[in-house]
Design a protein that fits this description.
Elements lengths: L4 E5 L6 H8 L7 E2 L14 E2 L2 H9 L3 E7 L2 E6 H9 L4 E4 L2 H10 L4 E7 L2 H10 L4 H9 L1 H7 L5 E4 L5 H14 L3 H4 L2
Parallel strand pairs: 1-6, 1-7, 2-3, 7-8
Antiparallel strand pairs: 2-5, 4-5
The structure holds guanosine-5'-diphosphate and adenosine-5'-diphosphate (ADP).
InterPro entries: GK/Ca_channel_bsu, Guanylate_kin-like_dom, Guanylate_kinase_CS, P-loop_NTPase
Pfam family, one: Guanylate_kin
Organism: Cohnella hongkongensis
Length: about 190
């Protein structure tokens, strides 16, 4: 059975978004109740929805998974995932360890779980240069050890410590090549 879902998980600022864009697969855009940051837009970074709407969808069984992170909800609507699993083109999605675990449980054969790891001090420096305030940095790094421990569940762990991006690009090429869609394979 071919892979439909490439899930990236790992600590905050380990480089999940960077690697996701280098993989070059279309993305599943998830929902959040947090406000858009400057430069973010609807349907590109997230679908920015109200907490009430997300809770309602969850109660109706329309969310594959939903977690709360720094006081905001993050969740994956079932329909988005079902469309991808039923289609022929793989997509990537960034989730925390709970969300990644849930997708793996539901779609084991169709999921490639990629863990992204960096040194804690690299993550701290990246968060500082992204301009987060100290309390937010502390909160994000507070789950660093738990996110790293959860990487043992992944199929592949990429060590994205500063200086390693070139090697990761090579691996991204291999992964993309290996994920050739059923459409391409039948050409
Ligand atoms: N479980 C789950 N986690 C998500 C989802 N979307 C994003 N996340 C996680 O939520 C975390 C926080 O996201 P965000 O506030 O955008 O921070 P940033 O990605 O670290 O800039 C991310 O690191 C993701 O791991 C989702 O739909 N479900
Ligand atoms: N290997 C690397 N070396 C140096 N900086 C990196 C590397 N990977 C990512 N970054 C930078 O670190 C920051 C966090 O990366 P990002 O991909 O947004 O992390 P995440 O999605 O895991 O929160 C970004 O500013 C990004 O440009």
């Amino acid at each position: 059975m071919s892979i439909s879902l490439v899930v990236l998980q790992g600590p905050s600022a380990s480089g999940k978004s960077t690697i996701q864009s280098r993989l070059g697969l279309p993305r599943i855009v998830t929902w959040t109740s947090r406000a858009p940051r400057e430069g973010e837009s609807e349907g590109v970074d997230y679908f920015f929805r109200s907490r009430a709407e997300m809770e309602r969808l969850y109660e109706q069984g329309q969310m594959v998974e939903m977690t709360e992170y720094h006081g905001n909800l993050y969740g994956t609507p079932l329909q988005l995932v079902e469309d991808v699993v039923g289609g022929s083109r793989p997509r990537s999605v960034i989730l925390d360890r709970a969300g990644a675990g849930k997708l793996r449980e539901l779609y084991r054969e169709r999921t490639l779980l990629i863990g992204v790891k960096s040194d804690k001090e690299d993550c701290r420096r990246r968060l500082e240069s992204r301009g987060h305030d100290p309390s937010e940095i502390a909160a994000r790094l507070g789950s660093f050890e738990a996110e790293v421990a959860a990487l043992s569940e992944c199929d592949l762990i990429l060590n994205n410590t500063d200086g390693n991006l070139e090697k990761i690009d090579l691996l991204a090429d291999f992964i993309r090549e290996g994920l050739k869609t059923r459409d391409d394979a039948s050409l």
